[in-house]
Amino acid sequence: MLKLAVLVSGGGSNLQAILDAIATKALAAEVVLVASNRADAGGLDRARRAGVPTAVVPHRDFVSREAFDGALVDVLRAHGTEWVVLAGFMRIVTPVLLDAFPQRVVNIHPALLPAFPGAHAQAQALAHGVRVAGCTVHLVDTGTDTGPILAQAAVPVLEGDTVEALSARILAEEHALLPAVLQRIAEGKVIVDPPSEVGGRARVRVGGGPLR
Ligand code: GRF
Fold first, then answer.
1. Residue 89 Cα, ligand 1 centroid: separation in angstroms?
2. Taking the model in full, what pTM does it have?
3. Which of ligand 1's atoms lies nearest the C-alpha of 43?
4. Quick check: do 1-102 and 109-212 share a fold?
5. Was domain 109-212 assigned CATH 3.40.50.170?
6. CA dist., res. 17 & res. 38, Å (int)
7. Closest by Cα among 165, 152, 159, 142 to 110
8. Which residues contact 41 (CB under 8 A, 6 or more apart)?
9. Domain 1-102: what homologous superfamily?
10. Is residue 108 within 6 Å of ligand 1 at its C-beta?
């Protein structure tokens, strides 16, 4: 059984989608830990309700991002984590975390990357006037929302959309896409080929047909 740790900073609706998919057996995985940099993250309550172990690692307690990630790695390893899921985790991760779980950290981002990386993706999509928005599940690398793409789902941008309305439409797709990608990982269908040349990108293949 795939042992997932989920890192959250906020409400944790994507965490909930993972827990629900596990409960309905759509996802053959176990959440061994939910960890947060914020003690007040709603995702921690969702974890507790599901009987999942939780940990709080306050980022302000550490002098550097690397020191924070080192503490995270310790707690992730202590729970037997195999893959790490960033689900609304609002911290930039460093090689300290990425090297501990090489090519085994995934992120969900509310935009069709490489458009609109960063913390304000939906507002930027609206401001730019795009007609199609969406979400991306990708492997995490040292950049911000730059790692190899595993899967994407698109939604229309509608006349008169607000950031809230567009975000909600995207979030509904996130809740379907993320557990579906994790199930492909559980099935061993996500294959990561290392970069073929210096400076190249790792390439990922997701077997099993279209996800959305
Ligand atoms: C999602 O839109 C996710 O893509 C982004 O942060 C949001 C988290 O929502 N990275 P939730 O905490 O899972 O409800």
1. 8
2. 0.96
3. 12
4. yes
5. yes
6. 20
7. 152
8. 8, 9, 10, 11, 12
9. Formyl transferase, N-terminal domain (3.40.50.170)
10. yes
